[in-house]
Amino acid sequence: MASISTLDRTDSVAGAGRVKKSIRAHAAEVIDALQNQQSNLDALLRKHSVHLNPNDKKLLQSICYGICREWFHLEAIESQLLDKPLKARDQILSAIVRCGIFELGWMGSKEHAVVSEYVDVTVTEGRPWARGLVNAVLRQFIRKKSELKMERHSAQTLWNHPQWLIDAIQQSWPDHWERVLVENNVHPPMTLRVNRQKLDRDAYIETLTTQGIEAASGSAPDSVRLAKPVPVQSLEGFAEGFVSVQDESSQWASIILNPQDHERILDACAAPGGKTCHLLEMSDSQVIALDVSEQRLSRIKENLVRLGLRAELIAADASHTESWWDQHAFDAVLLDLPCSATGVIRRHPDVRLMRSETSLRSLIGMQTMILDATWDTLKIGGRLLVTTCSILPQENQHQIRKFLERHADARLTTIDGIPGLDTLYGTQHLPTHAGGDGFFYALLVKSEPTNNGVSA
Questions:
Q1: Would you call 339 a catalytic residue per the annotation?
Q2: Do 47 and 134 belong together in one domain?
């Protein structure tokens, strides 16, 4: 069988008898794991990229991200090409077929090489009997490619979202749902945050322009939009802490909270730390960054070191305050709640596969516990900014409305001067083509309760 040298890599350098695994075998295994919801896409790509060079990592990412964006269309095409459904134990063959179809139909790869390599992957994955099947299916797709790509007979295949999510977005945003679904299927923009302690935004844009990088001011005060993504390490001043990568919708969180010098601020659910660092760039404050994952806290530490900033890092569950809170109330809390991530599907296309109506209900319950717990850590007169990267009202304005019903000492504050839609219980930003991701913001202030429990 023919193969491409750049696509062949040993799966491990240890052991002389180890079988070589091509990039396409890695891709099939990633897609198979996603089909079985074993892990998320980013974690799977990290696992399968350990021994790959940068070019191979990029190719693996392109295949897997692209398949997730075309998931339901590819599923329908595969169903048409197979005479009968594959057995549950042979679902790896489904992943192989989808990878092959995507490369042939969307990446413009050489047909002979693609077919040959994916036929070989059947052997790598212990299904040598399926060589003929994969060969026949992929060659049939080549013959019918134009016809099959044009056919989209259901809402799922048209929009490449699960039906429950299409219905939810349409019901939630009847005037905007089509644009949202389109934005979820495109490549996201790359946005930077300029460190205001070290340089001016306009000066940095001028620096990028002299290097041939097209850039413009974003909506947030420190944001810079790049016309095309670039390797982050190639950015002027990145290693020195002059600039960071952060979506502009996420940047607005720190702007809204408006940290002041000498304040004690909690950044709850803080990883990967963009907001933590932005708060410290904006003020000489004491920031405690809390996250349930010690591993994710290490990413915050890396960013703090690069930017020359300091924060206290705590690994704990925000809802279990007895395990981490020292009983000293915070002046301000930035609470980025765990959510469905339906506002960042263009960055994490596997969200449409990993989320369900059942998991959404579980997330809402978790949000409620974290909201109530962190509210207790806030001083009277202090402010709590609640954010999510969701566009679903159940996690956003409905959650805030119910919170206000439970807490008579909470007052919702109007947020002025930011892009988004007023929901009566916060501001919702929907994903925009050149701008920010889908994001929700609600700013609450704690007031002094009276003797009967009603706030003054």
A1: no
A2: yes
